[in-house]
Amino acid sequence: FGEAERVVERERPRAPAQKSLYESVFARMAARRDLAENGRIVIKGSEIPWQMNRQGKIGYYLHDDITDTALTEWRVFIHEIHTHSGKHVHQGGLGLYVLEGQGTTVIDGKAESWKEGDLIVLPVLPGGCEHQHFNTDDTGASQWLAFIFVPFQFATGAIFEQREESPEWKGSASVEGDE
Known about the structure:
mainly beta; five-stranded antiparallel β-sheet; 12 strands; about 40% strand
């Protein structure tokens, strides 16, 4: 007779038991608590990523894609305006604190002037708030610091539409230093 054939049957590894949706909430909340307790609590201005995008030059302190900070539900960024920003629409309900310079913000066709130390509050409007920012400072760029509570944006419909691009935009995002 010929050689004996040896057959080895392997047991398939069992798939890990899936968590219930209820249990996944506990896991996500535990991860958030851990990040709140152990995430970065000082974000140094010298370390923030500056990026040129369709709105202009922006430096991000907090953003959805920056995930190692103790506070994750906010977007906080500086917008540097040389001539004017792009024009876009999103739901208001956010604050822009003017750090330096002076300018005008046009909200749904109405111009509002601002200067260093002012707070611009974009209104919550049905269908969103169209706005664009203009620098009127002859001595250089103006800057403001934005504070956006992300859950509020989602709860009010998460409208976001670009209508006009900043004149500084060259067509592709670039991080400062890559330009």
